[in-house]
């Protein structure tokens, strides 16, 4: 059984900024218990495309 974590949009943006500044997906996933690298890439794409509402509505 997998546990779904909730990440507030402010935290997602902090994580995305760290990712864009060169921190690895693996280290961020481990630190924040993010289930997959795909989640980080999806958040990054939404952020870069100005889709903040997508970040607000998604838990993972």
Class by alpha and beta content: mainly alpha
- Residue share in helices? 55-70%
Q: What's the total helix number?
A: 4
How much beta, percentage-wise?
under 5%
Order of helices and strands: HHHH
Determine Rg (CA atoms, Å): 11 Å
Oligomer: single chain
Count of distinct strands: 0
Structural domain count: 1
- Provide the residue-averaged pLDDT: 90
Q: Sheet bearing the most strands, described?
A: none
Straight-line N-to-C gap: 16 Å
Spans of at least 5 consecutive residues whose pLDDT stays below 50 are: none
Envelope shape: globular
Any overview of this molecule?
With 60 residues, this protein is mostly helical. The mean pLDDT is 90. The radius of gyration is 11 Å and the shape is globular. It is 63% helix and 0% strand. It contains four helices and no strands. It has one domain (9-57).
Architecture blueprint of SSEs:
Layout: H1 9-20, H2 25-32, H3 37-48, H4 52-57
Helix pairs in contact: 1-3
Provide a short characterization of the protein structure.
The chain has helices spanning 9-20, 25-32, 37-48, 52-57.
Keywords:
mainly alpha, 63% helix, 4 helices, 60 residues, single chain
């Amino acid at each position: 059984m997998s546990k779904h974590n909730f990440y507030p949009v402010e935290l997602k943006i902090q994580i995305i900024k760290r990712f864009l500044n060169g921190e690895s997906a693996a280290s961020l996933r481990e630190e924040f218990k993010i289930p997959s690298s795909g989640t980080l890439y999806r958040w990054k794409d939404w952020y870069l495309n100005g889709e903040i509402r997508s970040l607000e509505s998604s838990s993972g």
